[in-house]
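Cytochrome c-552/DMSO reductase-like haem-binding domain-containing protein: structure tokens wanted.
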Amino acid sequence: MAQAVQAATPPQPGAVPASALQRQTDEFLEFVPPKRSPQTIELVSMPIAETDVPVIDGVTREPVWTRAAAITTLDFASQRPITLQAVHTAEQIFFRVTYPDAASSETHKSWGWDLRESIYKPMPDREDMFVFKWSLVGNNVHLGLNKAEPHRADIWFWKAHRTNSTGYADDKWQLVSDDFQAKAKELTSPAHGSLFFRRVGDEGLSAYSEKQFYEYQGETLPKYYPRQPQGSRADIRAKGVWEAGYWTIEWARKLQTGHKDDLVLIPGLTYLFGVSCYEIAGDKIHAKWFQPLYRAGDVFDRLLLRIAEKDAS
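Answer:
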């Protein structure tokens, strides 16, 4: 079986390196017009033996990844290519994600000291993120928020700062509904009029906590600190490594987690999903943030995962 990634010891309060913030200012992306029309692309997950299970460390030296079929899709906002691979055992499924990124952004909403008011305020740094969005209502629905349809989805949410150090991705569910919901964002759909968008974390404890500081302890401080996730929030192990202009992220999840808020995956069946390099939240570009496309993400291609059954012969 794959080796579980142990939670890191929470770091002590300290300054966020200026170099980490500068890497983000160097990567000012703009919305890129579509290079092509969206397509339907099938990703086939290859069955593997327990002895071939990859270690979830973002390094991907295992031979299994050289044998697994790969597809290339595009990110909605940046139109950068995203390469996906998948393999599975009788109990678990594994993914390898690779995409270009000129600079790694591994801090998020750091606290910056305001000399005039003598308080800490959020800075404009934003972490790199990657999202899998899985339909929980079958394969005949549009998962994008740009032309939204009512749907429910299972969200696997890797965050370069908040979850990566613990070796997990956040596990959430998402609902787009005709019915009004408290704390929901209202969307305007060409076909459905007003819809209401809401995303909620699965039951359990997330892989990060927040800290507020009231006395001066340095010019900049982290806001988020790693911890061991629990419950359904801990279903997805994921580890990313940035090297030479590329992020590589490995993922692992049980085919059937036993939690009611998760997608059940069964060999022999096909599942609709989408991916994005940024949060799929239907928001607008924030020009004052170091990553202006943060939260401007959406799904682009219509992706189908087919979990191949083991050859009986």
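The longest strand covers residues 92-100. The helical segments are 18-25, 64-67.

Cheers.
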